[in-house]
Amino acid sequence: MADRTITLLIVDDHPVVRDGLRGMFASDPGFDVLGEAAGGVEGVELALRLDPDVVLMDLRMPAGSGVEAIAELTRRGARAKVLVLTTYDTDSDTIPAIEAGATGYLLKDAPRNELFTAVRAAAEGRTVLSPAVASRLVGAVRKPAALAAKVLSAREREVLELVAKGTSNREIARELFISEATVKTHLTHLYGKLGVKDRAAAVAAAYDRGILG
């Protein structure tokens, strides 16, 4: 990657953040920002159309969350590597993002040089994690069973609650304004985190662990 320009797509719901990032990367001839998006849904569309090397993805956005966007890009086989750039480093943010397919995870207080280095590494397919996130992932590996119930995202909990009511995937998609494919992705993540293989077992495990009820 050192001998060519790295192309970028910025996905963040704050215009000031997008402007700042664009200006920062514009100052270095080694980068080229192809576009910007204000939410996950738009971010997926632009990533598939513009085919950047790296997508800088925020997580909590009104117009489609970053985790859902990452999962959708992974499902559709997008070439772009996703580098999460956010202010949140809780278990419920970091682990779902990595599981969804993010190549790296940085916090917005990262120095400019660290961000540039991370983008270059992501473009090469290398994993980049801020120290705080790396520590959380190490903890998750060491305590997977105890951590599983704590790392369900808000959307995964919503899906789980609807599953417990006997709601079909199609009905869940309609209720939450997401696609059936996204519902299936959430279910796959739920099964993995709860250590089960189907809907009934997921509901039983959730009640047993106090996630539901």
TrEMBL record:
Protein name as annotated: Response regulator transcription factor
SUPFAM superfamilies on file: C-terminal effector domain of the bipartite response regulators, CheY-like
Keywords tagged on the record: DNA-binding, Phosphoprotein, Transcription, Transcription regulation
GO MF annotation terms: DNA binding
Naturally occurring in which organism (per UniProt): Streptomyces jumonjinensis
Ranges for domain HTH luxR-type: 145-210
A Pfam family: GerE
Domain Response regulatory: 7-123
InterPro entries to which the protein is assigned, alphabetical: CheY-like_superfamily, NreC/VraR/RcsB-like_REC, Sig_transdc_resp-reg_C-effctor, Sig_transdc_resp-reg_receiver, Tscrpt_reg_LuxR_C, WalR-like
Any GO BP: phosphorelay signal transduction system
4-aspartylphosphate modifications at: D58
